């Protein structure tokens, strides 16, 4: 039996904020902390926490310095970060392909008589 496409999702990368950080950082050579905070609608503390997770995993580097007299923090994807983002996107594409393949073009279900696995109702 083949693995379900969701098994390819990385818990570190897949979290919404961290995926957003990696995506924004991929679009630029490096991205400034305040730009990330504003773009993703986060507090400084929340962004710092997520950056710490990504840095610990080796997916981003964080460089602190000055631009004129203003302190700046710059975030950049590592090679591992680029690969992790690429792999995450590939896993999502695989999942989308599988789910879209489960329906006919007219939006109806495929002609199978087996409804497949059905989740049991939650106990009250």
Walk me through what this model shows.
The chain has 124 residues and is an alpha+beta fold. It is built from 5 helices and 3 strands. It has helices spanning 11-14, 16-26, 33-40, 44-56, 79-101; strands at 31-32, 60-67, 70-77. Strand 2 and strand 3 form a beta hairpin. The protein starts with 10 loop residues before the first helix and ends in a 23-residue tail after the last helix. The model is unreliable at 110-115 (pLDDT under 50).
Considering the chains and any ligands shown, give keywords for the structure.
48% helix; elongated
Summarize the structure.
With 124 residues, this protein is of the alpha+beta class.
Helical stretch tally: 5
Strand order of the largest sheet: 1-3-2
Biggest beta sheet summary: 3 strands, antiparallel
Rg computed from alpha carbons, rounded to a whole number of angstroms: 20 Å
Mean pLDDT: 86
Fraction of residues in helix: 40-55%
Overall, the morphology is elongated
| Poorly predicted regions | 110-115
Structural class: alpha+beta
N to C succession of SSEs: HHEHHEEH
State the end-to-end distance.
34 Å
Fraction in beta strands: 5-15%
Q: Could you give the topology of this structure?
A:
Blueprint lengths: L10 H4 L1 H11 L4 E2 H8 L3 H13 L3 E8 L2 E8 L1 H23 L23
Antiparallel strand pairs: 1-3, 2-3
